[in-house]
Specification:
The chain is mainly alpha-helical. The chain has one domain. Helix content is 78%, strand content 0%. It is built from 5 helices and no strands. The longest helix is centred in the C-terminal third of the chain and has 29 residues. It is globular and about 50 Å long.
């Protein structure tokens, strides 16, 4: 990969990490207000019987998965030409997930092993999606199929 795209991807990764870790620095009450704002925005499409607390928990878990899915995808693109393209992005994303939960200790919130697993699953999906896309591009370029 040329130098400019690597720099752009690195900047995007750092911006995403600043967003993720910035949210982890928020006190629990502030973080809760943000996720409850999302719950309020989607309340009309939720099934009957879902409580505000359940919806808040689901929104938080989807946010974890999505943020780290994007992180995994960006890391995979950044290291696409590396022979360890599967291992490096996932390892870095896993490390970022552990750091994310560690930051929460200092913001008065507790770390969650479940969140590390959700983050890691999101990162793995992001990496897998990029690898599938690029595998498909190579296959179509060579006249093959997926």
């Amino acid at each position: 990969m040329k130098k400019a795209p690597k720099i752009i991807l690195t900047v995007l990764i750092l911006c995403l990490l600043a967003f993720i870790w910035g949210n982890s620095c928020l006190p629990g009450e502030e973080s809760d207000v943000l996720s409850l704002d999302v719950v309020s925005a989607i309340w009309g499409i939720l099934p009957d019987g879902v409580t505000s607390e359940q919806a808040n928990n689901i929104v938080r878990k989807i946010a974890h998965f999505s943020e780290f899915g994007l992180l995994g995808a960006l890391l995979c693109l950044r290291f696409l030409r590396d022979p360890d393209v599967k291992l490096i992005p996932f390892s870095l994303a896993f490390s970022c997930a552990v750091i994310d939960e560690t930051i929460q200790i200092f913001s008065g919130r507790g770390p969650s092993f479940i969140d590390v697993l959700i983050d890691s699953a999101g990162a793995a999906c992001g990496v897998a999606l990029i690898l599938l896309i690029f595998r498909g591009k190579r296959g179509f370029a060579a006249g093959g199929t997926l």
